[in-house]
Amino acid sequence: MLPVPKGRAGAEFLKLTFAVRTMAGVSELESALQMEPAAFKALYSTEKPKLEENLIFFCQMGKRGLQATQLAQRLGYKEARNYEGAYREWLQKEG
């Protein structure tokens, strides 16, 4: 299980989580991660993640989170990871 980071890192995690949650789905993620930083910020109200940043993807059951992780890795986000327990596990343990 990947814990939510504390402090500033946690705040950045939550901002990125919000940005991803506003997307229509994995199909929108590909175009979002290829946007210029200014366009990303204008559309999602947060900074575009840098290629070297840790990205954690999740969904309700795990399938879309894994798809998003694989897509981000193909686009050069080598630190992209999938929260395998998905939202259900987090809700049981932390919610």
Features:
thiosulfate-thiol sulfurtransferase activity; mainly alpha; single chain; two-stranded parallel ribbon; 2 strands; 95 residues
Arithmetic mean of pLDDT: 75
How many strands appear in the DSSP assignment?
Answer: 2
Strand content: 5-15%
Gross geometry: globular
Helix-strand string? HHHEHEH
Radius of gyration from the alpha-carbon trace, in angstroms: 13 Å
> Residue share in helices?
40-55%
Structural category: mainly alpha
* Biggest beta sheet summary: 2 strands, parallel
Q: State the end-to-end CA separation.
A: 14 Å
Number of helices: 5
Query: In order across it, which strands form the biggest sheet?
Result: 1-2
Low-confidence stretches: none
Short description:
The active site is at 59 (cysteine persulfide intermediate). This is Thiosulfate sulfurtransferase like domain containing 1. This protein has helices spanning 7-21, 26-33, 37-44, 63-74, 86-93; strands at residues 55-57, 80-82.
Description of the structure:
The chain contains 5 helices and 2 strands; from the N terminus they run αααβαβα. With 95 residues, it is mainly alpha-helical. α2 runs parallel beside α4 (63-74). The protein is globular, with a radius of gyration of 13 Å. The model has no long low-confidence stretch (mean pLDDT 75).
Helix/strand layout:
Elements: H1 7-21, H2 26-33, H3 37-44, E1 55-57, H4 63-74, E2 80-82, H5 86-93
Parallel strand pairs: 1-2
Helix pairs in contact: 2-4
